[in-house]
Amino acid sequence: MPRGRYSLHDPHDRAPLGEEHFQCATGPSGWRYVSQLTAPSGDRAGSVDLTLDGLGRPLRLELTTPHWQVRGAALDGVTWVRADPSGERAQEGNAPAHAFTGASPAFLVAVARLLRPAPGAPATRVRLVAFAPPVLAPRTLDQAWALVDSRTHATDSGPLTVDHYRVDDLETGERHSVHIAGDVVLAAPGVELEDLESPPSTFA
Fold first, then answer.
1. What is the pTM of this model?
2. Which of 1, 6, 9, 107 has its CA 20 to 30 A from that of 46?
3. How far is 5 from 104, CA to CA, in rounded Å?
4. How many CB atoms lie within 10 A of CB 10?
5. Rg of the chain over CA atoms, in angstroms?
6. CB 112 within 8 A of CB 163
């Protein structure tokens, strides 16, 4: 069960956005990721709880910030409820999308797990509903994912396979790289893996 810490920053000006302390685990029915977020000041900034089924579809998503929360799942596309902590301003949403995304590195692992592109194959298009902190307002976007290559590196704990993905934002044309080992993001725009207590899990 990997445990560790990501530091998050603005990918454009590298302004610090805080840290994400996480743990995740694979199982016979899928994958679960939970984390606590802290602001640069050290104050609590929210949480992430994401569970995928064996095919990479979101069985359950729970996001919180100090003033908003979102609960969602794959249902008729994807369905979610966004509300304030009291629940008085709850709004339900639905979109013909494949999965969710957001600021957490968990979503990069989730999309890679859902698509599972083959090395060298044409890019796979995916529609996602994004929730951006701090207000977690939903936004639908389209991306294209391609697996550039997979390389195995020798480490003290055994071989480590790193997948290099190319991700295109089909609205803006921006392109970036994401490097994932098992269920841990090693490098991505705005994300740095600062600490990892145990090796990444491998998916069956």
1. 0.96
2. 1
3. 12
4. 11
5. 16
6. yes
